[in-house]
Structure formats: C-alpha cells, structure tokens
Automatic annotation (TrEMBL):
<feature type="repeat" description="TNFR-Cys">
    <location>
        <begin position="64"/>
        <end position="121"/>
    </location>
</feature>
<keyword id="KW-0675">Receptor</keyword>
<dbReference type="GO" id="GO:0002720">
    <property type="term" value="P:positive regulation of cytokine production involved in immune response"/>
</dbReference>
<dbReference type="InterPro" id="IPR001368">
    <property type="entry name" value="TNFR/NGFR_Cys_rich_reg"/>
</dbReference>
<keyword id="KW-0472">Membrane</keyword>
<keyword id="KW-1133">Transmembrane helix</keyword>
<keyword id="KW-1015">Disulfide bond</keyword>
<dbReference type="GO" id="GO:0009897">
    <property type="term" value="C:external side of plasma membrane"/>
</dbReference>
<feature type="domain" description="TNFR-Cys">
    <location>
        <begin position="27"/>
        <end position="62"/>
    </location>
</feature>
<feature type="transmembrane region" description="Helical">
    <location>
        <begin position="213"/>
        <end position="233"/>
    </location>
</feature>
<dbReference type="Pfam" id="PF00020">
    <property type="entry name" value="TNFR_c6"/>
</dbReference>
<feature type="domain" description="TNFR-Cys">
    <location>
        <begin position="64"/>
        <end position="121"/>
    </location>
</feature>
<feature type="disulfide bond">
    <location>
        <begin position="41"/>
        <end position="54"/>
    </location>
</feature>
<feature type="disulfide bond">
    <location>
        <begin position="65"/>
        <end position="80"/>
    </location>
</feature>
<keyword id="KW-0732">Signal</keyword>
<keyword id="KW-0812">Transmembrane</keyword>
<feature type="disulfide bond">
    <location>
        <begin position="44"/>
        <end position="62"/>
    </location>
</feature>
Length: 261
C-alpha cells in the first residue's frame, strides 16, 4: 500500500473520530447532547427520553414518557418530568359549624397532561394565585379572605389578588361581612330607640305608647259596638213568655146542656 493511501485512510479515521468525539472544549451541535463519556449523541425528541447513549456503532436509544410524566422538548435526559397535579383540595363552607379546608393548591385542570406537554392549571373560583412557575403558570392558590362581621368588602378578590376588607363606619353595621348598612332611624318610622346599634347589629326600635293607644281605642270601640249589636239581636229573637190563664169561677155550657170542661 502506498504512503498516500495510508495517509488518506488515516485522515478519514481522524475525521470520523472528530465527528463522534470532539476535541476538548468543542461543543456538541444544537440537536446533540454530550454523554457521560464525552460523546456528542443525537437528542431524543418530544415525549421521549434517553434509554441508552450512542456509541461508535449505534445511535441514541430513546423511550417514551408514560404515566403522569411528560417531555416537552428535544433532550438528552434520562427521566421525564412529572405532570403538575393541579390539586384543588377539599373545600367546605367556612360558615358551616365545624367546616374546614383540607390542604390543596386551589387549582383545577384546564388542560390534561400528555407525553409532550404538562398539565395547565387554573385558579378556582374564590381563590387567588400566590405562586407561579417560570412559564407564568399558577402553581399554588389560596382562598380569598372572608371579611368578618363589622366589616365590608372594599375591593373584591380576583384570580391574582386577595379580598380587601374595611371596618364599618359609626352609624352602620354588617352582620355577614359583605356590606355595611346604616342603622335604622327609629323616629322616621314612628318608633323610639331602646337599644344602641354596633358594628355588627342594628339599633332596636319599639312602638311608642301613644301609637299603641291610638290603635287600641278604635279597636275597643268597635269591639264594644259588636257586642251590643249581638246582644240586641239575640234578645229580639227570644220568644215572649206565656202568661197563665186566670180562673174566673164561671162555667160554660154547651147547647146540649152539658158543661164544657
């Protein structure tokens, strides 16, 4: 074999090795990853991860993501990413005695996880997001604050902000922590106040004595008239008593000369 042929064969081998094992400091191509042995291997596609790195004789071996896992980009990784759970927790009405919230994220699944994409979570009604991922997707939410009795909702909560509460001003009250209602003006409804109001309850009014007398007198007169009328009608309908026949001592005789009994 001539020297030129040997030289050409040597160059071809070096070129082949340079494609598989780059020199120190060289980077792999955009569709390659560097294995633990330093080789540049072809990446696995979306929905796949590396089962076995490439060798001089074979390319990269890939396996699909299964179960609640995914891979959303070409990669040289050995494990798929876990799908976001979007855990809503168990919600119960806090106004019901003994109710409570069991830990959860306050989220629901807007889009189901696949082998190539993660779940997309969305904030439940009555919750607001407190933590987001790098992709600006909500990862945790809390329940909106419930305003206490004596307060009102100043700014309603949204998907990104909590509810803002405000104390009721003097002269108004709130029983359920939603709106503040002005105390009742007893005089305007013809009554008088017997108990002051507070931030959580209304004033207590009572009808005045004069109003009671005004209502009571006509009622009493009417009742008296009805009783008199009933008594008079009853008396008229009663039969007159029969008087006993007074004996005179005379005897009556019939035409036949017999005495009538």
């Amino acid at each position: 074999m001539s020297i030129s042929r040997v030289w050409l064969l040597y160059c071809a081998v070096l070129l082949q090795l340079d494609m598989i094992i780059p020199a120190s400091g060289n980077k792999c191509g955009p569709a390659e990853y560097k294995s633990n042995t330093g080789q540049c291997c072809p990446m696995c596609g979306k929905g796949l991860v590396v089962r076995k790195d490439c060798t001089l004789e074979s390319s990269t071996s890939c396996i699909p993501c299964t179960g609640q896992t995914y891979m959303n980009a070409a990669n040289g990784l050995a494990k798929c990413f876990p799908c976001s759970p979007c855990d809503p927790g168990i919600m119960r009405d806090p106004n019901i005695f003994g109710a409570h919230n069991i830990s959860g994220q306050g989220l629901f699944i807007l889009m189901t996880c696949t082998s190539t994409s993660n779940s997309i979570c969305h904030v439940q009604n009555g919750y607001y997001c407190t933590s987001s991922s790098a992709g600006n997707e909500c990862t945790f939410a809390l329940r909106h604050t419930l305003c206490s009795p004596g307060q009102r909702v100043k700014v309603p909560g949204t998907k990104t902000t909590d509810t803002m509460c405000e104390e009721c001003q003097h002269g108004s009250y709130s029983q359920h922590g939603v709106n503040c209602t002005a105390w009742t003006d007893c005089e305007s409804i013809g009554q008088y106040k017997i108990e002051d109001g507070s931030q959580t309850r209304d004033v207590v009014c009572r009808k005045s004595l004069r109003n009671r007398v005004i209502v009571l007198v006509p009622s009493s007169v009417f009742l008296f008239v009805v009783i008199i009328f009933v008594l008079s009608v009853t008396k008229e309908n009663q039969p007159s008593p029969k008087l006993p026949v007074e004996e005179t001592g005379f005897q009556t005789f019939t035409s036949g000369g017999r005495r009538a009994s």
